[in-house]
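Input set for joint prediction.
Command: fold jointly, output tokens.
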Amino acid sequence: MAESSSQKIPVTVLTGYLGAGKTTLLNRILSENHGKKYAVIVNEFGEIGIDNDLIIGADEEVFEMNNGCVCCTVRGDLVRILDGLMKRKGKFDAIIVETTGLADPAPVAQTFFVDEDVQKNARLDAVVTVADAKWLSDRLKDAPEAKNQIAFADVIVLNKTDLVSKPELAEVEARIRGINPYAKLHRTERCKVALSDVLERGAFDLDRILDIEPDFLEPGDDHDHDHDHDHHHDHEHGHSHGGLKHYHDEEMQSLALRTDKPLDATKFMPWLQNLVASEGQKILRSKGILAFSDDDDRYVFQGVHMMLEGDHQRKWKDGEPRESRLIFIGRELPEQTIRDGFESCITS
Amino acid sequence: MSAFEPGGEPASIASVTDRVRPVAIGAPVTAIYFLGERAAFVGAEESVALVDAQGDGQGAISRVTVHDGGILCTASDGARIVMGGDDGKLAALDAKGEVTLLAQDAKRRWIDNVALHHDGAVAWSAGKTAFVRGGRGEDKTFDMPSTVGGLAFAPKGLRVAVAHYNGVTLWFPNMAANPEFLEWAGSHLSVVFSPDNKFLVTAMHEPALHGWRLADNRHMRMSGYPGRVRSMSWSAGGKFLATSGADAVILWPFASKDGPMGKEPAMLAPLQARVSVVACHPKQDVLAAGYSDGTILMVRLEDGAEILVRRNGTAAVAALAWNAKGTLLAFAAEDGDAGLLTL
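tokens >
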């Protein structure tokens, strides 16, 4: 029954706050000469000019699963549309879901975790967030949706960089990194980005959770001597290290855990499950590569809010450091509790 | 689930596989209906293949194009099939192969659901809007709070059940009365009335059915399925509701006034594969069940006795249909490999 992921249709989710350039990126993807056919699921159907054969209007209907978990929400319309699209299998190679500017990406992603039929036919490839270089910093202060979209992203297309100065660009990048240091970030004008940077990313492919290192900005690119003197009333603070500014967003953060001591699977698994059960509303994304004691296989997992999936991935290679690494991106994460809990899972 | 041994059926099972007339549709099939003596295999896209049921097997398959795109929903009253497509069209096909365009959505929205009443009325939906066209042709519309998941006509009177998120709306298109709302949290998809008009059952997005006794709106939870229920069929006389979604046919008892309340369902014809389609015989207490591994069995409801119609080892069974007399069974797998069995 299990179909390999390569037979499943990849689905790219395109998010971004109003006016950031989602439609520009979508049209760029569709118009480029790649020989591929896309089915496009859009909101605000008919109001934007998109030239594509297969274009479907969605209603962004979110409903709660009947499992007593308030953050287990799925996009019912997406289930229905993907089901209908599967009747036309072979007529398209990939699907792009464009969300509204105010949408939370979590229900879209969770649809791929919980719906059996969706899982059988399609796979979530990546969440791509288009951000407006000029206005994102403001939106991060006043629009929780914008912050969610940055926190959730696998790929961030930082657009309209031609409308800002270099210090302004460094500022907005630092703010993005303060929330999500792991997404691949691309600076663009008019969403000019290589399609390979936004499509076929495999960001939700367990086999490709190799790269959970922060996507650091290339040093030297922007040598920043700017001093940040404004005092943000929303308790953000910036400081500079070697020319690069670092921000810590008080509300949304990422947390990285690492140990080179083996973990005790019988302690770690219950701990992780309890953690996402109790703090899942705060945890937007989680990923990890784990080394368990008495286990020669790497174990990988990923999660969205309370939903987790994980599997043994492959044997640890000779000479490969058996190191466990986890990341959490979320809102008001209880850092010390998570760190202490993680420490207690190390094999004594 | 992936492990099976082709030809590994127990030797004792009765088989009628040699009496099946193969029909090569050659394209994915999603539904089958009998229109008189012709079997209509509805494709996933564009066309319907009409096959003369009594032919010698060499008879031509005539293919009729109905939609410009995917065919999303179908219903039949035995005289015609009404279909909705992703081209925004609602069209009817009769036994002669003639296509009539019934409606076209102005915004080219997908026609997601369709239902037929035995008096000729047709109901359909696009997004949140449900439509009904009575025998005299005037359309009535009703906007639901969320996207319509399923439609069904009550066996008596002009009453339409519209399934959506968090419940079912019972709509009386010809009456000024407010529609009745049956509430139950979750996403409700296909919906059916019991033939005696006493019960309403929905298949939910989660692997469960939900039912209401219409006299007092009492709830019936029918859960425990490993997978979503995509196929429901009432037995002759409406004593049982047979369903897919498990590795056996799940048969809920509806003969008493309490329906399945407080009762366990019967589990018939268990295999190492998921039941994908069920179709009850129109006259006798027998059903046909199709499985995810391609197996098709005929099963007697009384004692669960099985007869093999089709062996495993192929694509999942996508559709099954009996003719009105119950003398013919048509089937198709997801890949378009189909057949007709004369009893």
